[in-house]
Design a protein that fits this description.
The chain is an alpha/beta fold and 214 residues long. Helices cover 48% and strands 15% of the residues.
């Protein structure tokens, strides 16, 4: 498998350092790592973009960029933490993971491998907080999911536990687990976190007022 990684940082020297670090990693596959400007991303169409927040923000606000790409965010301590509402919006647009400022090169390698394998790289507790803010969601029709399954997907995206779903729908916990197993198979996901992101990306969950004014 061969994939292309674009490194985009407002500090070019840092970007070059990350590029060289990736080149030294043994992925067991051909990896082409380059430093690109935002316009370079449009031209090269990489499989993964490793970017700082400034690049991330500009990428999501540039309507000329239509290429779907997975994004790994380099979090820094010099910027304030991104609010959960904004993170939820970014995830729906392609953000697939976050690298903490204290992460080691081994964690960066694991994050890249996970994302390129179709997985995600988020702290599960943090993601639970993110999906919990999506209170104004509505589920659309799907040829794959039944009405009850769509209802459960909506609850998962609002951070409901199995017990809460059981109480809300007045069904047994075993029924909830059976529904979830079928949902995972139909959507090609394996856990709640992947299911929630899948729902946002495929518009089964409509984000309403995610970035509304305070």
């Amino acid at each position: 498998m061969e994939f292309k990684i674009a490194v985009c940082c407002c500090n070019y020297i840092i970007g070059e350092g990350i590029k060289e670090l990736i080149k030294r990693m043994e992925f067991g596959t051909n990896v082409s790592a380059r430093c690109y400007s935002l316009k370079g991303i449009i031209k090269e169409k990489p499989d993964l973009v490793i970017a700082d927040f400034n690049t991330l923000y500009r990428r999501f606000n540039d309507t000329s960029i239509r290429h779907d790409v997975q994004i790994l965010l380099l979090e820094t301590e010099c910027l304030p933490l991104i609010e959960n509402k904004c993170l939820l919006y970014f995830i729906s647009k392609g953000l697939a993971g976050i690298i903490r400022p204290t992460a080691k090169s081994s964690q960066l390698k694991k994050a890249i491998k996970s994302i390129m394998s179709g997985e995600l790289w988020f702290d599960r507790n943090k993601y639970r907080d993110i999906v919990a803010v999506a209170n104004d969601v509505s589920v659309t029709k799907s040829s794959l999911l039944t009405e009850r399954e769509l209802e459960i997907v909506g609850m998962i995206c609002r951070g409901y536990s199995n017990k809460q779903i059981t109480e809300e729908l007045n069904i047994t916990e075993q029924s909830v687990k059976s529904h979830l197993n079928r949902i995972y198979k139909k959507t090609g996901t394996s856990d709640r976190l992947q299911l929630a992101v899948h729902a946002f990306k495929t518009n089964r969950i409509k984000l309403q007022q995610i970035l509304r004014e305070k």
